[in-house]
Write a structure and sequence with these properties.
By secondary structure, this protein is of the alpha/beta class. It has helices at about 1-20, 30-35, 90, and strands at about 25, 40-50, 70, 75, 85, 100-105, 115-120.
Length: about 120
Amino acid sequence: MKKLLFILFSAFFIMNIANAQSAELVDANTYCNNPSKYNGKTITVKNVIIKSKSNTPVNTNCKPPQGYKFLPIEFPNPTYIGCFIISQALSNSITSGRDLRVTITFKSDPNSINTITQIQQ
């Protein structure tokens, strides 16, 4: 009986850890309506556009650290202004020269400097 309880408790604990580390899937409009709700979380936002030429408004505090660069992201809600940075290595995998509709996974930051960790086309 003790072994069964231990196995059940262990499985429950492992499932909770896996769920806590997975990214929450959010639609772009939902994110734009309340971005502060997701501060500190890793989230996946679908239906955003990576712009080939940056005509999107830029947050003035958007200064990427060394090894990262700014990535112009356009949301369906044009009033949302956020800073999205991406590592140089990951940015090299993006096909440039045209706008891309993608799903991005990023760590949402309270200072509005969001670090993109994954891009799916």
